[in-house]
Design goal:
The protein is mainly beta and 127 residues long. The chain contains one helix and eleven strands, in the order E-E-E-E-E-E-E-E-E-H-E-E.
Length: 127
């Protein structure tokens, strides 16, 4: 089992920045690809970003490319999502996710197939 706990959400004005963190415990963190998903009210949970187990590769949804950056620190068992130039349409609950491969994270439909989830942290962007 892998336990994931997100933090860093909150209320921010459009154009602002937030950094989300996800602390992992349980099985060896470095064995897993990590990712972030988000779910807005009335919408499916969707892929945001993913990072390879060693940080060598990163992937992003088109809607966040150039604004969001995913990173990880395996010594701290933590993955981050730096979000810049936030827009009202980024408002959602953000979930940390872990799976064996980034492919699983990148191709998950409505989050199906992901091995582990955090409980989420709310990000609200005001206009």
């Amino acid at each position: 089992q892998v336990q994931l706990v997100e933090s860093g959400g909150g209320l921010v004005q459009a154009g602002g920045s937030l950094r989300l963190s996800c602390a992992a415990s349980g099985r060896t963190f470095s064995n897993y690809a990590m990712g972030w998903f988000r779910q807005a009210p009335g919408k499916e949970r969707g892929f945001v970003a993913a990072i390879h187990w060693n940080g060598a590769s990163t992937y992003y949804a088109d809607s966040v490319k150039g604004r969001f950056t995913i990173s990880r620190d395996n010594a701290k068992n933590t993955v981050y999502l730096q979000m810049n130039n936030l827009k009202p349409e980024d408002t959602a609950v953000y979930y940390c996710a872990a799976s064996r491969t980034t492919l699983t994270l990148r191709t998950a439909v409505a989050g199906n197939g992901v091995d582990y989830w955090g409980k989420g942290t709310l990000v609200t962007v005001s206009s």
